[in-house]
Design brief:
The complex is a heterodimer. In chain A, strand 5 and strand 6 form a beta hairpin. Chain A contains no helices and eleven strands. In chain A, the strands form three sheets. In chain A, strands 2, 5, 6, 9, 10 and 11 form a six-stranded mixed β-sheet that branches. A three-stranded antiparallel β-sheet of chain A has the order 3-8-7, with no helix packed on it. Chain A starts with a strand and ends with a strand. The radius of gyration of chain A is 13 Å and the shape is globular. In chain B, strands 2, 4, 5, 6, 9, 10 and 11 form a seven-stranded mixed β-sheet that branches. In chain B, strands 1-3-8-7 form a four-stranded antiparallel β-sheet, with no helix packed on it. Classes of the chains: A mainly beta, B mainly beta.
Chain lengths: 107, 114
């Protein structure tokens, strides 16, 4: 069965330090992967998708099929990055989410 | 510019009661989803629909029912509420197959079953 694993429940990073939120997936086909973010008192929203190969708010994520990973990275953390981050996988008509990682940026 | 609207925002139920969580979207999206969010467990897919008249089970469908009589509405029904159904419920919609596809989420319904 398809699965999305986010091994860290909580990640604390100092402002200005690099950020890496880990995501591993299991899927036998060609995966379609996303990162969603939930800021405090806001709705869940798309951060980025692998197919677009985009950078949003300084975040990037590269699909590594060999390691079945889609880690989210940012070179310099900002306080406004504090939020809950979810990695998600589309399989046919379903979108499956990981358990999420809470990112806490320390001043 | 409503997007995805969920009602109610909060509800307390007694064990065994029933209720319907409402979800409506005004973007003419084909696909709609119901998720529950539990602390430390992330988002679990309950049911989804790819169009009016079509629904299918997700990861955790037990104890829930859905219907999709129109493109706009996708209500979630709890027939016999149980404490295990205490959660935050999110409805989402999308129009897949486009290059900028994404899920649009509602603001959530916080449900407590006591």
């Amino acid at each position: 069965a398809q699965r999305v694993t986010q091994p860290e429940k909580l990640l604390s990073v100092f402002k200005g330090a690099p950020v890496e939120l880990k995501c591993n997936y299991s899927y036998s086909g060609s995966p379609e992967l996303f990162w969603y973010v939930q800021y405090s008192r806001q709705r869940l929203q798309l951060l980025l998708r692998h197919i677009s190969r985009e950078s949003i708010k300084g975040f990037t994520a590269d699909l590594n099929k060999g390691e079945t990973s889609f880690h989210l990275k940012k070179p310099f953390a900002q306080e406004e990055d504090s939020a809950m981050y979810y990695c998600a996988l589309r399989r046919d008509d379903k979108i499956i989410f990981g358990k999420g990682t809470r990112l806490h940026i320390l001043p | 510019n409503a997007g995805v609207t969920q009602t109610p925002k909060f509800r307390i139920l007694k064990i065994g009661q029933s209720m319907t969580l409402q979800c409506t979207q005004d973007m003419n999206h084909n696909y709609m989803y119901w998720y529950r969010q539990d602390p430390g467990m992330g988002l679990k897919l309950i049911y989804y629909s790819v169009g009016a008249g079509i629904t299918d089970k997700g990861e955790v469908p037990n104890g829930y029912n859905v219907s999709r009589s129109t493109t706009e509405d996708f209500p979630l029904r709890l027939e016999l509420a149980a404490p295990s159904q205490t959660s935050v419920y999110f409805c989402a919609s999308s129009y897949p197959g486009v290059t900028n596809e994404k899920l649009f989420f509602g603001s959530g319904t916080q449900l407590s079953v006591l």
